[in-house]
Amino acid sequence: MATAPQPVQLTDIAGRLKRHWTVVAVLAILGLILGVLASFAIPASYSATTTVSVNPMNADPVGSSADSTKSINMPTEKGLVTSQKVAQAAADLLRVHSIDAEQVKDSTTVESPEDSLILTIHFSADSAKRAAAGADAVAEAYLMTRRSAASDQVDRLVKAANEQISEIQDKADKPAYETPVARRSLGIQADALGTKLAELSNLDLDPGQIVGKADTPSSPSTPSAVSLGLAGLFLGVLAGIPIALLRKEEDSEIGGVDGLHSIGDQIVLDGTKDTNRADTWDIAAFMLKIPTELDPEGPFVILVDAEEEPGRSITCGQELADALQRRGRTARFVDAGAINEGKISRGWPTDKKRITWAGEIIIIDTTRLTSDANKVALATRSDSVLLARSTADDAEALRRFAGLLRSKNIDIALTALFPARADMLTLAR
What we know:
The chain has three domains: 10-42 and 224-246, no CATH class; 46-212; 257-428, P-loop containing nucleotide triphosphate hydrolases (Rossmann fold, 3-Layer(aba) Sandwich), CATH 3.40.50. Helices cover 50% and strands 14% of the residues. The protein contains 16 helices and ten strands. A six-stranded parallel beta sheet has the order 5-10-9-6-8-7, with helices on both faces. A four-stranded antiparallel beta sheet has the order 2-3-1-4. Helix 10 (277-287) packs across helix 11.
């Protein structure tokens, strides 16, 4: 009967990583080296910040509404900072640093805290001095542009008002406006325009001020060799883990006693040179620590597990039972593969069953049991665990099963190693 595939356990993952740790280590070191090299390849960049307070422009700043933010649209002001006009003005101020308008636009970012009249201008450059100079230059260019725009607007309004006053004066000299009503209307219009000119003359044209000049940065804003190296190391580990887990095992067979020791078995009976399996089992029966006097209230349970060999009629558990009988001990053989697995998962053998076995040596053979979980469950209910494997058995499956047993603090009392079936036929000749 073919064994159903078992779900992956944490012990499998840990075992694979332990066996292929060199893959993870190599990729981690490679990532570290690439990260450090990248730090030298990436040009150094410095960032400096200048803070600007934006003033609302109104005729009477002292008597204006307390909510002055309503007179300013900060998203519009942010757009002005990064505009071509401001970039060109900043480039003129940065002529000594050889920074043109396009570089200014590409190097400038601006932020504004919510519900505030503050602009935070960031400028990036390839040197600390250029970064600080660039941030201050953009701030000054923004204020100059805003002041110039406001002044041009006032000049336009003053010019328009003066033109209207001149028209009123011309109308006053015409006969059509000699009536009292017409002259009063012209006077009202002239007074309104005079008031408007007075307001325009008092208009606050202060666009704002720099409240925090840029400090010359002491270190680049680009990642350092240490940070990029650590990032590369981390990415190397992340890449190495799945590669190590998916890497094909170089040797899928146990091969010999050294292969078993590499899996973690401490006591191994090497029967690969025995021409008769019975001789190996006789020694195994001798090596097992079975009490001379058995407990009259309960059995001594030995779990035997092997990988099933197609065409083999007798199982390893029966071979151990026969070896014990040759030594004068009575042993009862139980094939766990013939027991309903649902009963095993629910706690078989029950206390009632164990009472019927009292005073006996019980050999429970799990070779034909398909569930590793049920095998481990039976091992927790056994007094001794013996594994039987051949040199051609699947080493990965054995590692997995041994890991499951270790996870439940179950010791493997003995592992008996046999030659592959073809080798046994050769020995028999």
